[in-house]
Amino acid sequence: MIKSHPSEAILYQYASGDLSASMTLVVGTHIDMCPICKRTVCEIEEDLCNKHLDSLVETICAPSKGAMSKTQCDQMLEAIFNSQAKPAAQREDLISLEGRRFNLPTTLAHNAHRIGEWTHLVGKLWRAPVDLSDDGQTNLIYMEPGAQVPEHTHKGQEATLVIDGVFNDEHDAYYDGDFILLDADRKHTPRTATEDCLTLATLDAPLFFTSGISRLLNPFSSLFFR
Amino acid sequence: MQTVTSHTSQRGVMTTSQQDTAEKAAQLLAQIAETRSRQAFSELFSHFAPKLQAYGTRQFGNEQTAMDLVQETMTNVWHKAHLFKADKGSPSTWIFTIARNIRFDLLRKNKKRKDDISADELWPILAEQNDNLDDDYALDQDILLQEISHYYGQLPDAQRIVVEKIYVEGKSQQEVSDSLGIPLGTVKSRTRLALKKLKELIVEHD
Ligand SMILES: [Zn+2]
């Protein structure tokens, strides 16, 4: 049972197409896993359609100025009938790491070709970048059992989605499908216990490590979660 | 009292006419999908193009970009009409989501980055195969590939075949279900049983 969802404001921006590419990916992947948010988004899309398209029912009979002429319509129809269908989207449903294999939710599966090589970070942490040619930094993060990310704060927002497994921080425990949004300045220390955890995380600014020796990691923080 | 009644009935008429429009549009989409009817498409076009144009103009404040949005949205409608599912929502909502995606791409176009992400990847609404049948995203249950190969020969045939296809040939559970012609649920339960058995075997031999 998913207990941590994106806010309705985020779902609204998702449905309107106003989130960044990286945030759209993380929210969309949550929606693949979450029937509740899927239903909410369908309702929001209906509302948006009402607002943007259907509300024009009355004005269609009386063409406004700037409306398409008959010639323009015919030309466009001709172009459409002569167009080629786009090739089918490519998707990859599985990723593997160290003998572990994961099934990807639909949205992530359509971006599998953007997932880079896995690299082993400090301790029991692995990272594979997701290249969205976006300003944010998006990664798959894999935590082996007993892994711990050094305590850190963010300059910007960090969104994390649990794809599989469970991790804890000082606030709560997060399971498959949970979506966590942390604002700047909120400290947290993600860690796993007996289970491992695969997450999708996006960050719109570098991490800042705040505790003890891991402060030494700060110069490398952009390397760490890029 | 009278005002309330007339207000209600007016709303009733509105809803009915909207419903009629939706039904009509759904019929046209079905016709386009089945017979590639240009006639049906032209009718759908004359209904939606002005709405899309108005949406585009408000979004971009630019006539030409608005026209691009109309053309690209309706091009997708022409080629992908078979992907509209009447039980999942209204035709206009479906067309709106296509336009939303085109808008996203048009807004990013000026960034001119090679291999830029497209809205079709982020909202795969026009993908041919889009059903997410599997709600379990981990397949291995802590068992390493190498370990499995030592022991899977000892499984009952039905389970071994499923495990072989998934762990040796690298197929998804859905693909195994398709290729063996057995339900996905059966594949899942056989996998689960096989993994349980494998765990026992591995523990025994450790
Ligand atoms: Zn949700």
Global Rg of chain B: 26 Å
Number of domains of chain B: 2
Taking pLDDT < 50 over at least 5 consecutive residues as the criterion, the unreliable ranges of chain A are 58-62, 213-226
Percent of residues in helices of chain A comes to 25-40%
Give the distance, in angstroms, between the N- and C-terminal Cα atoms of chain A. 30 Å
Number of domains of chain A: 2
- Give me the CATH architecture of the largest domain in chain A, please: Sandwich
Shape of chain B: elongated
Number of helices of chain A: 6
Q: State the total count of DSSP E strands of chain B.
A: 0
CA radius of gyration of chain A is 22 Å
The CATH topology annotation of the largest domain in chain A reads as Jelly Rolls
Give the CA-based shape of chain A. Answer: elongated
Identify the CATH homologous superfamily of the largest domain in chain B: RNA polymerase sigma factor, region 2, helix turn helix motif
What is the CATH level 1 assignment of the largest domain in chain A?
Mainly Beta
Structural class of chain B comes to mainly alpha
What is the topology?
The complex is a heterodimer of chains A (226) and B (206).
Chain A: H1 8-16, H2 21-33, H3 35-52, H4 70-81, E1 94-97, E2 100-103, H5 106-109, E3 119-120, E4 125-129, E5 137-143, E6 152-154, E7 158-168, E8 173-175, E9 179-182, E10 197-203, E11 207-209, H6 221-224
Antiparallel strand pairs in A: 1-2, 3-4, 4-5, 5-10, 6-11, 7-8, 7-9, 7-10
Helix pairs in contact in A: 1-3, 2-3
Chain B: H1 2-35, H2 38-60, H3 63-80, H4 91-109, H5 119-122, H6 145-151, H7 157-168, H8 173-180, H9 184-205
Helix pairs in contact in B: 1-2, 2-3, 2-4, 3-4, 7-9, 8-9
The structure holds zinc ion.
The site of zinc ion (ZN) has 6 residues of chain A, from helix 3.
Tell me what the structure shows:
The complex is a heterodimer of chains A (226) and B (206). Chain A has 226 residues and is an alpha+beta fold. Chain A has helices spanning 8-16, 21-33, 35-52, 70-81, 106-109, 221-224; strands at residues 94-97, 100-103, 119-120, 125-129, 137-143, 152-154, 158-168, 173-175, 179-182, 197-203, 207-209. In chain A, strands 3, 4, 5, 7, 8, 9 and 10 form a 7-stranded antiparallel sheet that branches. In chain A, strands 1-2 form a two-stranded antiparallel sheet. In chain A, strands 6-11 form a two-stranded antiparallel sheet. In chain A, strand 4 (125-129) and strand 5 form a beta hairpin. The longest helix of chain A has 18 residues, at 35-52. Chain A is elongated and about 65 Å long. Chain A starts with 7 loop residues before the first helix and ends with a helix. Residues 58-62 and 213-226 of chain A have low confidence and may be disordered. Chain B is an all-alpha fold and 206 residues long. Chain B folds into 2 domains: 15-122, Rna Polymerase Sigma Factor, Chain: A, CATH 1.10.1740.10; 152-205, Winged helix-like DNA-binding domain superfamily/Winged helix DNA-binding domain (Arc Repressor Mutant, subunit A). In chain B, 71% of the residues lie in helices and 0% in strands. Chain B contains 9 helices and no strands. Chain B is elongated and about 70 Å long. The chains are: A alpha+beta (226), B mainly alpha (206). Chains A and B meet through helix 2, helix 3, helix 4, strand 2 and strand 7 of A and helix 1, helix 2, helix 3, helix 4 and helix 5 of B.
